[in-house]
Amino acid sequence: MSSKKENILFGWMIAVFALTTVVIHLLTAYSYELHRDGMLYFAMGDHPATGYISTPPLIGIISFIIRYTAGYSVFAIKLVPALLGAASLVTIGFLVREMGGRLLAVFIAEMTYLTSLVFLRSNALFQPVSFDEYFWLLTSYLFIRLINRNEEQLWPWIGFVVGIGFLAKYSISFLVLAWGISLLLSPYRKLLWSKQLILGILIGFVMILPNLIWQYEHDWPVVHHMVELQRTQLVNVTLSGFLSSQLLFHFTSFWVWIVGFLVLLFARKERKFRPVAVTFLLVLLILILSRGKSYYTLGAYPMLFAAGGYVMEKYLTGKWRWINFALPVLSVLILIPILPLALPVLPINKMAAYCQSAIKVAGPGIITWEDGKVHNIPQDYADMTGWSELARLTAKAYHELTPEQQANCHIFAENYGEAGAVHFYGHAYDLPEPISFDDSYLLWAPDSLGNGAFIYINDEVGDIDKLFNSYREIGEIHDVNFRENGLKVFLCADPKPGAQSFYAAKADELKSMYRR
């Protein structure tokens, strides 16, 4: 096959794969409601800043663009991660070619990514993780090109991409550390003494400096966030669970990345790309030692998909060549019955029954949440229902007020999921901006409140009986699939003396954590 014809076919192949993943995600975009985290990140678009309590600023910038171009658009919000999935497929294609793979290798690697349960899931959610995974992949592509071509002038580009990746999610630091150690342990260590590396470091530092300044000015919220994660979630991470997850993540095509990893690590003929396998090992080691969540490794896998495609095409030849075509077909056949675990293709009221059947084969891990407990459906799906009902109940309370009362009404939610739902789905009801002391909503909350009507969202009465002379329950959400089943909306009136000072003191106490 001529080089020109192969290049044309290569272009068509990655374009078809990229378009396919976008279509898949847009077809399921409206199956469930927005994820609780996605609504928090979208709300950041109304509060542009160089940092937030639980995430760097990139997703807030993207949300700002969506907010002021497409408005409150589910389509636009869902399109962003779908496009990141498409970009990942394009980058994987070029990575395979960089390693010396041809069309069959590209096809194997693309199919591995397209049929991966976790990448189907992450590219369906508007969260920093989809950005993080892509910038891990792009960074790895540049490192592989660096060692393959000995192009020291790539260092500034690596610094630029890592800078953007850092503004998406701080965890890209793990990848950069792993690549640095890997190069240091390899014959490519001479690339680390390049003046171009210094330029790349300077470029990356300048890009992340505004966020570092923001972190300093707010007394390093990332540290507070990690301490809270350690207390509530990372404490449930076990070594066995971490390692078993690595096999289950890409269950439909696990043989591709394992073959790529092992051949690059041990085959003498492939020692040129051994740093790829060493980098992956180091990422695993760093995350195990730091007790990171199992999915923090996801960004390191696409380079192994590319390696697997390259290795299989190169060595499975002659009478074994048919395996290269049979295994992708097998991946699709495996994916079909477990697709509901990756994408919301089933109605949510049927997911519980499906999961009860699925755990007989796959085990309870598929419905084990971050709290370490087994529930009836996957946690992400439980976070994608109930929100529009909450907005409706809140609107019911709000519209019982007179226009004068509405002008001075405050809506308080106990967590960012509830506040995000009121912000996004409540937009259709002309609800005011919600208040919460959770996550970045704390920074946006007013320091004090007026003496107006108060709508309270929680699963219990809480302190409102001490703060208001009258209150009544407007409604309660009854949805067994909802993570916050039993959530109530209260309409409060006639605040008691000291209600305003109670709020002001609480706001000041919590905000003081983020002041120097």
Question: Ends: how far apart?
Answer: 65 Å
Count of DSSP helices? 24
Largest sheet: 4 strands, mixed
Helix/strand-derived category reads mainly alpha
| Strand order of the biggest β-sheet | 1-2-4-3
> Which sequence of SSEs, written as H and E, runs from N to C?
HHHHHHHHHHHHHHHHHHHHEHHEHEEH
Mean pLDDT: 93
What percent of residues are in strands? 5-15%
List the uncertain runs. Answer: none
Question: Could you estimate the helical fraction of the residues in percent?
Answer: 55-70%
Number of strands: 4
* Shape by Cα distribution: globular
If you compute it from the alpha carbons, what radius of gyration comes out, rounded to the nearest whole angstrom?
25 Å
Account of the 3D structure:
It is a single chain. With 516 residues, the protein is mainly alpha-helical. Helix content is 60%, strand content 5%. The longest helix has 26 residues, at 74-99. It is globular.
Give descriptors for this structure.
24 helices, mainly alpha, globular, 516 residues
Chart the SSEs and their pairings.
Blueprint lengths: L2 H25 L8 H8 L14 H10 L6 H26 L3 H12 L2 H6 L5 H22 L5 H14 L3 H13 L10 H23 L3 H12 L6 H11 L4 H13 L7 H16 L11 H15 L7 H16 L9 H15 L16 H4 L4 H12 L4 H5 L2 E4 L2 H9 L16 H4 L9 E5 L5 H4 E9 L11 E8 L3 H13 L5
Parallel strand pairs: 1-2
Antiparallel strand pairs: 2-4, 3-4
Quick recap of the structure?
Helices cover 60% and strands 5% of the residues. The protein is mostly helical.
